[in-house]
Amino acid sequence: xxxxxxxIKCALVDAxxxxxxxxxxxxxxxxxxxxxxxxxxxxxxxxxxRARAQGLVPRAVGVAxxxxxxxxxGVAQYAANLPLRDVPLRxxxxxxxxxxxxxxxxxxxxxxxxxxxxxxxxxxxxxxxPIGTGIAAAYVxxxxxxxxxxxxGEFGHVVVRPAGPGCACGGRGCLEAVASAAAIARRAGMPAxxxxxxxxxxxxxxxxxxxxxxxxxxxxxLTAQALLDPEAIVLGGGLSQAGDALxxxxxxxxxxxxxxxxxxxxxxxxxxxxAGCLGVGLLALDRWQGRTE
Length: 293
Prior knowledge:
Layout: E1 2-3, E2 7-13, E3 19-26, H1 33-53, E4 61-65, E5 68-70, E6 75-78, H2 89-97, E7 101-105, H3 106-117, E8 125-130, E9 138-141, E10 144-145, H4 175-179, H5 181-188, H6 192-200, H7 204-228, E11 232-236, H8 244-257, E12 265-268, H9 275-288
Helix pairs in contact: 1-2, 3-9, 6-7, 7-8
């Protein structure tokens, strides 16, 4: 289960990582923390029942949430778009179902899914960058997602335009404030997919906005390439639905400015907005199979 600010994405994942069933529900975040937690518990219970009705045996549960997550203690500490503050979500789910449960970070879980089963599966060092309302990143090396001291991956808050627009974090010129789908929509006064379509059709104003966003994203990726040296950069999230309209100019901007650094593959994610759901399913499988404590 991947609990987002708008939707909860759910799946039954078997021991091979195949999704046997998928569904999604509105989160209802405005109803408050108790209502959201009650919905999570209700959905996991229903999914476990569905599995048993299909002759399957539920073995473990994985729940992913955004924001600041204590994966060791299983606590959802803070999320800007969810009313979860210091909620011991792992224990609540585990007690509700009496099954081993893991709590993961949505982007890091998504990176794991893309690295093991998706666009990055043939690389050993991959950077996963979902671009939607915000921008984040997960660096996967040797099959493990690096977490730093616990909160690595806030790629959207790398400053790429010091004199640029204000960011929700309180800073100025963050990548997320310039190149996210939300930032593009704010500047254009229309949804980001419409900006992409108009730019492709030759609208000069839309083309300028799109070009600025792509260049800012490339600046951020060049910094990541210098610091982390990934073999592949996998772009996901809602903006990746633009396909080659995003990938081709980003590749051009990055490759034109590389000097001695490795030339990374720049790829589109395989699992769209369901990467986090699948990834936390893989974490749950790891727990069941004894690969994590």
